[in-house]
Design goal:
This protein is an alpha/beta fold and 428 residues long. Helices cover 30% and strands 27% of the residues. The protein has 2 domains: 213 residues, UDP-n-acetylglucosamine1-carboxyvinyl-transferase, Chain, CATH 3.65.10.10; 209 residues, Alpha-beta prism (UDP-n-acetylglucosamine1-carboxyvinyl-transferase, Chain). It has a 4-stranded mixed β-sheet. A 4-stranded mixed β-sheet has the order 4-5-3-14, covered by helices on one side. It is globular, with a radius of gyration of 21 Å. It binds shikimate-3-phosphate. The site of shikimate-3-phosphate has 11 residues, from helix 6.
């Protein structure tokens, strides 16, 4: 349980957020199928990315974790992976389970991967179906819809796959499977989603190219270990951007976050709403563009968010809803039905909890309608065990009159250990 209150003045300061979660998972997994040493600097500190490392260790990969979030991975390529003598545990992390399933589809041994009760209720048929098309032997509970998943590695082959849902996790599972499949694997996206897998595989020397919405990977090519510096996670920065945007007199800088164009949807939406956000000190960390973000508080207007924009801000929609309660006019978000299949049903969760605080939000089958501005009032709110709902409620509580008590606040540790201290720090 945590309590939050409104700051006396605007929020201010200069902070760093943990390393990008999506890039960290991928750097570890790609390092495990590469030959040689991969050094990862700034590995994400949350429990989710730690689960990926533990699973890889159970698969026989040598991993050294040192202070300052530096991770060293030694591998001799995919054929050096070993059959785990126990069940792999992905915890709360969908990325761990789906990406590892792609890798394990071609490794000649049996493995079982499971997760916590939230993950065991998230759909896995979205990866089972394409992996089976590639020749994989994979099954799970309830007609292979849910984990635990049992995977027996086979000689798999490339496919041409057209995505029916926009999901970077599904795309990545297929591309990673394609790395050890015969022939070419061609993946066509519905809407462009985060492209960290493509960028990382290229950085490690894979034959992979993207033209328009199509990515092609050549199977059975060797890749070599590399050094990866992970930028700050823009999805973690989003809570502080939201708080600064909606609090007058704020002036906040968030250092060195990924500004990969497939991840900056939230920043662009805030700018369209009238927020002052400047990108400073732009640079590259090898394969990823990085910048610091300077934001000052200002008046905000409502916005329309369309389906094709959703993948670029998928994880930021709960906190966007919080910001929109403070914006002038009616915000409409559509095409966001995937939010119902995250760590919780995020459309229902955010609507219910923000309305308890005085917001005017209506849930639709695929989105939200938010009428603003409405004052928020502190009360007792729930997190549904979902880190992104917990952090969105921390922002709401910091904009509200009175005290907000957030029950089940510990779940933020899956992506952002230290979050609650930073929230207090920027209020001083
Ligand atoms: C992720 C992709 C998104 C996102 C998740 C991380 C990734 O999921 O919600 O937090 O690292 O690929 P989907 O690809 O299932 O939409």
């Amino acid at each position: 349980m945590e309590t939050v209150t409104k700051p006396n003045k605007g929020i201010s300061g200069c902070l760093r957020v943990p390393g990008d979660k999506s890039i960290s998972h991928r750097a570890a997994i790609v390092g495990a199928i590469a030959t040689g040493t991969t050094e990862i600097i700034g590995y994400a500190s949350g429990l989710d990315c730690s689960h990926t490392l533990t699973c890889l260790e159970k698969l026989g990969v040598t991993i050294e974790r040192s202070a300052e979030n530096r991770v060293l991975i030694q591998s001799a390529g995919p054929e050096s992976l070993e059959e785990p003598d126990t069940i792999l545990d992905a915890g709360n992390s969908g990325t761990t389970m789906r990406l590892l399933a792609g890798v394990l589809a071609s490794i000649p041994f049996c493995s079982v991967i499971t997760g916590d009760s939230s993950l065991r209720n998230r759909p896995m048929d979205r990866i089972v179906e394409p992996l089976r098309q590639m020749g994989a032997c994979i099954c799970g509970r309830k007609d292979s819809c849910y984990a635990p998943l049992m995977i027996k590695g086979e000689n798999i082959h490339g496919i041409c796959y057209q995505q029916k849902i926009a999901s970077a996790q599904v795309k990545s599972a297929i591309l990673l499977a394609g790395m050890n499949a015969t022939g070419y694997t061609i993946l066509e996206e519905l809407y462009r989603s985060r492209d960290h897998t493509e960028r990382l595989l290229k950085w490690f020397g894979a034959q992979i190219s993207t033209e328009g919405m199509r990515t092609t990977v050549t199977g059975k090519t060797r890749i070599s270990g590399r050094r990866v510096t992970v930028p700050g996670d823009i999805s973690s920065a989003a809570y502080f951007l939201a708080l600064a945007a909606a609090t007058p007199e704020s002036d906040l800088t968030i250092l060195d976050v990924s500004i990969n164009p497939t991840r900056t949807g939230f920043v662009e939406i805030l700018q369209d709403m009238g927020a002052n956000i400047a990108l400073i000190d732009e640079k590259h960390y090898g394969f990823e563009p990085v910048a610091s973000l300077k934001i000052t508080g200002s008046a905000l207007n409502a916005i329309e968010v369309r389906p094709e924009q959703i993948p670029n801000l998928i994880d930021e929609i709960p906190v966007l809803a919080v910001v929109c309660t403070q914006a002038e006019g009616v915000t409409r978000i559509s095409g966001a039905q995937e939010l119902r299949l995250k760590e919780s049903d995020r459309l229902t969760a955010i609507t219910k909890e923000l309305n308890k605080m005085g917001a005017n939000i209506q849930e639709t089958s695929d989105g939200l309608i938010i009428k603003g501005p409405t004052p928020l009032f502190g009360t007792n709110v729930e997190t549904y065990g979902d880190h992104r709902i917990a952090m969105a409620m921390a922002v709401a509580g910091s904009l509200a009159q009175g005290t907000t008590t957030i029950n089940g606040a510990d779940c933020v540790d899956v992506s952002f250990p230290g979050f609650w201290d930073l929230v207090e720090q920027v209020k001083q």
